Amino acid sequence: MTAEPLHTTSWPVPPLDGYTVDDLMSLPDLPPHTELIDGSLVFVSPQRDFHSVVIDLLVSGLRRTVPAELRVRREMTVVIDKRNGPEPDISVVRAEAVRSGEQTYYQVSDVMLAVEVVSPESEARDHDTKPHKYANAGIPHFWRVERTNTDARPVVHVFHLDPETRTYRPTSVHHDRLKLSVPFTVDIDLADIDNL
Fold first, then answer.
1. Which residues on neighbouring strands pair with residue 37, listed in sequence order?
2. What is the dihedral of CA 15, 21, 49, 160, to 10 degrees?
3. What is the pLDDT of residue 56?
4. SS3 157
5. What H or E segment, with its residue span, contains residue 25?
6. How many CB atoms lie within 10 A of CB 137?
7. Does the N-terminal peptide bond of residue 183 adopt cis geometry, omega within 30 degrees of 0?
8. Which residues contact 35 (CB under 8 A, 6 or more apart)?
9. Coil, helix or strand for 192?
10. Alpha-carbon distance 49 to 34, whole Å?
């Protein structure tokens, strides 16, 4: 009787100098929503319901008021540089950056707003790593969305880029309603999450 071979998973072995954006775009069989941070592939855990529903709520609300020269996209790679291709949960990009339905990424210079919905596994990246990279790359606006401890509603932390220091400055925190005039008019009832 011969033993059955153990099932093994073959993981990609990183190159000596780390992965590049070209690798991210061309490696076969990467899991969905794989990101490239500092030359390392980051595999994202399966989404929780809260994460998915908040993205739907915000995308729908943003698309209602986004100006004609901008487009709202969810979960698309943003190429920052050769070794960084994060995937914001939501991006607002210049309309001219949308070239085809086959497109798989946007250049960081085309992104006006990046939004991250915090998950337990992404907390450090969403609080520190990704906002730092977005700010340093010049994305003018950043929102970090978290779940409150008391209920399932989202809290939206709004930041604006200080161009001198290339860091984000907090401008407001929104609990029940997200109402802004910058980067464009936004009015989203965050309590609508209860109906989704």
1. 40
2. 130
3. 96
4. strand
5. helix 21-26
6. 20
7. yes
8. 24, 41, 42, 44, 77, 85, 86, 87
9. helix
10. 19
SS3 labels along 45-106: CCCCHHHHHHHHHHHHHHHHHCCCCEEEEECCEEECECCEECCCCEEEEEHHHCCCCCCCEE
Contact 126, 157 (CB under 8 A): no
* Direct distance between the N- and C-terminal alpha carbons of the chain, in angstroms, rounded to an integer: 55
Cβ count within 10 A of residue 88: 26
pLDDT digits (tens, 9 = 90+) for 13-66: 788 999 999 999 999 889 999 999 999 999 988 888 999 999 999 999 999 999
8 Å CB contact between 119 and 66? no
Distances (CA, A) of 163 to 20, 139, 142, 170: 27, 10, 13, 14
pLDDT at 2 exceeding the cut of 70 = no
pTM over 0.85: yes
Query: CB neighbours (10 Å) of residue 172?
Result: 12
Structure tokens at 121: 């596994």
